Amino acid sequence: MDSDAPNTLIEHFSLLDDTRDPSRRRHLLIDILIIAITAVLCGADRWTEIEEFGKSNEEWFRKFLKLDHGIPSHDTFGRVFALLSPAAFQERFGAWIESVREAYEGEEIVAIDGKSLRRSHDRKRGRGPLHMVSAWAVNNRVVLGQRATEAKSNEITAIPELLGTLMLRGCIVTIDAMGCQKAIAEKIVDQGGDYVLALKGNQGSLAEQVEEAFIDAEARDYEGVQSDYFETVERGHGRREIRRYWTLAELDGIERKDQWKKLNMVGMVQSIREQEGHTSSEYRYYIASIGNDAQRFAKAVRGHWGVENDLHWSLDISFREDESRIREPQAAENFTVLRHITLGLLKNERTLKRGIKTKRLKAGWDERYRAKLLFDVSD
Question: How far, in Å, CA of 132 to CA of 38, rounded?
């Protein structure tokens, strides 16, 4: 192993405890992890593919790893990732992310959102598909952390656990209606962040009161009302989209507003889509602690909507996540972390102006590009 090579990944993941029986260890844990990360980066989606990639690139791996017993088998990869503690793996992942995360001029938006791995279910054992709740840094374009649940309904318990692992000072945290809970809002504020939380029927009376507040303000044409407004217009592919953002700082009509820590604004978004002579319109409502600034509110909301394209779409289209048939829960959760690691590496590589799929292919074809992505070296 070249000890002089910049090896941030190796240094961080070398700190992961190896809980395997010492008498049965033939391969170093760090060797297994780096081969798996690299293989997924280069297009592997299964344990068998990781093994074949390792064998095909063994000489290259020996520049960075010991490999005293060569490349592990696919059974070894599957067994190790099924035994590896997801919490410990995610802790090391989070530490590595914080080490490479760039300082962003302005506020970082952290979008908390969930996604089910559709084919990870195991009917024989009565297990539903694994549901992952992830924290996506909108500006840095990396996953900051994740937590697994057995169902979308369990997001309420997973979100506070995930938030507890994150550095939120100076960030705006956005969450959909499932996470609109007083305890979650309080936790965000206590950790130095602000929140923008979507409202739906699960907050029945609160959602109704926010809607009524905007109806009253509109009836007065917003005269004498502490409010702000921002609008965007986008055109493309024969479609025109108008998004209108209103904020209100007057919360007199919101009952129990004092129970929501630092609540100082309610927001409304109208989305209008015009295409082929048809027009559709939709309203969404929010509560927030970010003050009466419609442009700031718009940035947070748009950032959260973007997680569908920047994170979920990339995982499904470029990494074929929904096709994954890894059914052992810990192995499936750990493979998700592998995807998140590699997605962050690929999205933050800006010299190649291509999509994620093409970057994965190039990493597999071009050893110099691969080394640059993983170890920030070009030779």
Answer: 22
- The mean pLDDT value of the chain amounts to 88
Is pLDDT above 80 for 326? no
pLDDT of residue 350: 86
Q: Domain boundary at 295, 313, 331, which?
A: 313
Neighbours of 144 (CB within 10 A): 26
Is residue 256 domain-resident?
A: yes
pLDDT score, position 4: 44
**Contact at 8 Å (CB) between 250 and 225?**
yes
Does a structural domain hold residue 2?
A: no
Please give the full DSSP string across 294-318, using - where no structure is assigned: HHHHHHHHHHHHTHIIIIIIHHHHT
Range of the domain at 163: 98-313
- Same-domain pairing of 254 and 107: yes
**78 plus 110 within the same structural domain:** no
Q: What is the pLDDT of residues 217-227, one digit of tens each?
A: 999 999 999 99
**Residue 319 in domain:** no
Asked if pLDDT for residue 137 goes beyond 60, the answer is yes
**Residue 83 and residue 18: Cα distance in Å, rounded?**
10
Q: Are 197 and 238 in contact (CB under 8 A)?
A: no
d(CA 4, CA 186): 46
Three-state DSSP state, 102: coil
Closest by alpha carbon to 32, among 94, 74, 88?
A: 74
Residue 7 has pLDDT above 50, yes or no: no
**Strand, helix or coil at 206?**
helix
Asked if residue 325 belongs to a domain, the reply is no
**237-264: average pLDDT:** 93
